[in-house]
């Protein structure tokens, strides 16, 4: 007998959740403060979908509410990101093995590395192995192994649009891509003991042309992420 579960799905922007919402059935909208949560079915699974808003604090608030108010048992964060690894191309997929808040900087206050959070057991939040395996398998089946990458995702409250900065971030963190929410989601899930996965479709190269590239490719990237989420939901147990 199939075990019932409720899965939280988060996207930062309207573009990142719109197609998922349009595919849902039995939708019940719940508003908490300025956030709208959509309970319903997707691929025959019980889900709660939310547009968190941009940035780490917004993402953390939405994640906390999904866990505390809606009692979700797993969380999938989906959306777009800028490539940090120069070998990754626009519309490629990155599945996070671990996530770090790369703008956390207490290096002046002691023997800390950039990204390290004082008094935390770990500052590198590891994705759930089962969800990671599902995401990787689905993504490769959909897009081919040459377009699917796995590795570290970094988050910062900044839209990175500088070749110089992105090269430095790659050097420091060995990251695959950069975005503005995933590590905050991972941080909350780590503290609350909730399995999570972060899946990103690349919309830009986080370089000097990033703004123009983002506007052009965000819808394509969001569709790619949606396909992976639906693939995961169709086989998750």
From TrEMBL:
GO cellular component, one term: cytosol
Keyword terms of this UniProt record: Amino-acid biosynthesis, Hydrolase, Methionine biosynthesis
Domain Nucleoside phosphorylase: 6-233
Catalytic activity: 5'-deoxyadenosine + H2O = 5-deoxy-D-ribose + adenine
InterPro entries: MTA_SAH_Nsdase (IPR010049), Nucleoside_phosphorylase_d (IPR000845), Nucleoside_phosphorylase_sf (IPR035994)
EC number from the UniProt entry: 3.2.2.9
Pfam families: PNP_UDP_1
GO biological process terms on file: L-methionine salvage from methylthioadenosine; L-methionine salvage from S-adenosylmethionine; nucleoside catabolic process
Gene Ontology molecular-function annotations: adenosylhomocysteine nucleosidase activity; methylthioadenosine nucleosidase activity
Pathway: Amino-acid biosynthesis; L-methionine biosynthesis via salvage pathway; S-methyl-5-thio-alpha-D-ribose 1-phosphate from S-methyl-5'-thioadenosine (hydrolase route): step 1/2
Gene3D superfamilies: Nucleoside phosphorylase domain
NCBIfam families: MTA_SAH-Nsdase, PRK05584.1
UniProt cross-references to PANTHER family, sorted A to Z: 5'-METHYLTHIOADENOSINE/S-ADENOSYLHOMOCYSTEINE NUCLEOSIDASE, 5'-METHYLTHIOADENOSINE_S-ADENOSYLHOMOCYSTEINE NUCLEOSIDASE
Protein name according to UniProt: adenosylhomocysteine nucleosidase
